[in-house]
Amino acid sequence: MEIIELLKLPFFQNAIIAGVIVGVLTAILGTFVVLRRMSFIGTGIAHSAFGGVALGILIGIDPFVSALIFCIFTGFLIAFTSRKFNISEDSAVGVFFPAMMSLGIILLAFVKGYSPNLLSYLFGDILLVSKTDIIISLIVFFIVIIFISVFYREMTYITFDSEFSKVIGIPVEIYDYFFISLISLAVVISIKIVGIILVSALLVIPPLSALKFSRNYLAYIIYSITIGIIVNVGGVVVSYYLNMPPGATIVIFATLIFLLSLFAYTIKSK
Fold it and tell me: Which structural domain, as residue segments, surrounds residue 160?
């Protein structure tokens, strides 16, 4: 089927729109995640969604609502534990990440009868995105854009020097908790795109690919967004034509772009 004909199909239009929204959203948040060396925290928050999904299935509520609650709770728990007890954030993630996954497995053991296909939550399927999913994604998108636009200065200061930010009166911990909440929102709406297991790749790979070629922070965000869109849209198209799982294809596509960026940077540096 020609690409023009393919774009006329409603399900494919939904997939492309969702891919663009999530690509931009995760790329913007990912720039802060990468520069603040919070990649592992993103992974921990993403995987904690499994416990939320399992709880939703068990008690009969929307798994994405319970996943969001679990993600925010886990993110806050990681941040609180690392600050209160002087434990590294990576170590805190190493505790709560497997704990939440294990809790999900235990909760699923209590589910009687039919349970939804867990693979759709673990690996996603962007081709099944609905109009409702797009509307929710747009709401989250505007929440994130408004927050970053209003508090861009504070977030930039915290990203590059959190200690100085405290000295000049910025409530760093409050901003960190808000930021964790935004990551949780992005993670939950990305589950249908690439799934719980792979969602952290969208937060890390596009910004990391753009990092070496950016002369300033604004250029870094623009390059990251561009790569995020290319990765999501390109992955959807390739997965459809080659009949491959969309989520995994998007991540492999992103990884290839990252490797190409490393190669290009190496050539440029010589």
Answer: 3-262
Q: In total, how many domains does the chain have?
A: 1
pLDDT in tens, 41-88: 878 888 888 899 889 988 888 888 898 888 898 888 888 888 888 888
Residue 268 lies inside a defined structural domain of this protein: no
Q: DSSP letters along 25-72, please? A: HHHHHHHHHHHTT-HHHHHHHHHHHHHHHHHHHHHTS-HHHHHHHHHH
Residue 177 in contact with residue 73, Cβ under 8 Å?
no
CATH (domain of 123): 1.10.3470.10
pTM above 0.85, yes or no: yes
Contact 65, 56 (CB under 8 A): yes
| 270 is a domain residue | no
